[in-house]
Amino acid sequence: MSILIKKYSNRRLYHTEEKRYITLEDIAKIIQQGKDVNIIDNDSKKDITEETLLQIIVNDFQGLFSSSLLHQMIRLQSQEFQEFLPFYMRTGLEYYININKQMDLWKQTGTPGLLADFFPFFKAETKKKREKKTTS
What three-state secondary structure class fits 99? Predict the structure, then answer.
């Protein structure tokens, strides 16, 4: 179940469950805790969740979306690009999450697993560990 946040005409965000005003940083913390939010404009009743979350991302990841990148994205607006970009971002994020899980597993077990095949620094790290074991 998602938490309902209302945005009022004075641009303030209101957490309806806690009955208090919150900030974009508060919304980010709620999401980082694993909860979902649904943000609506109180006057128009329009769902503004996506644009609010994008605002958080743009604020938190300064430099991720440079002016030149944003210009290119606007120039490339087409049906194909609009289908490609979400797929590309979702796939890249899933890949990143899987890599982090593999790294955590590697740290726990001391073996690089699948990562050694993809990243040279894992091969080098494994080689160093083997050399230490043989010299000890």
Answer: helix
Residue 49: other Cβ atoms inside 10 A: 16
pLDDT, one tens digit per residue, over 79-131 is 888 888 889 989 999 998 888 888 777 777 766 555 555 565 555 555 555 56
Largest CA distance in the chain: 72
Q: Where are the domains of the chain?
A: 3-111
**pLDDT of 54-64, one tens digit each?**
999 888 887 78
Half-sphere exposure of 118 (CA within 13 A, CB side): 10
Closest C-alpha to 13, from 35, 36, 42, 33: 42
Structure token pair of residue 97: 């999450």
CA distances from 9 to 12, 41, 44, 59 (A): 7, 8, 10, 21
Record the pTM: 0.65
